[in-house]
User: Fold this.
Amino acid sequence: MIRWRLPVLMLVNALLAAALIAAHAQWLAPRPPRLAVLDVGELYRLKEREVAAVLVKANASDEERLAALKRAAAFGNDLNTLVESLPAECGCLVLARGAVVGEAQALPDLTPNVRRRLGL
Assistant:
């Protein structure tokens, strides 16, 4: 009668240990951060091109030019606010595209989404 209790007890202990290790790995162990990239330089180039088109337009009024310059001045603050909110929205760490060495294609690119949100 005792002969079968020891193997059963060992099996129960092994299963319990495996379950605890799996639970720890699933819920308690720290996870590596998810990463995404953002091409800030591209966003600034697009805004610069947009403002320059208005400024060099021959029949643009002074009001249109002034409005374009005001939008350009506010662009930095708008972009900064949006970039600060991105990590919370995507649940990831956002890296500047220029800071990524190697294959950036493996990381999600947030640039198209941000470009659309900024109206570029």
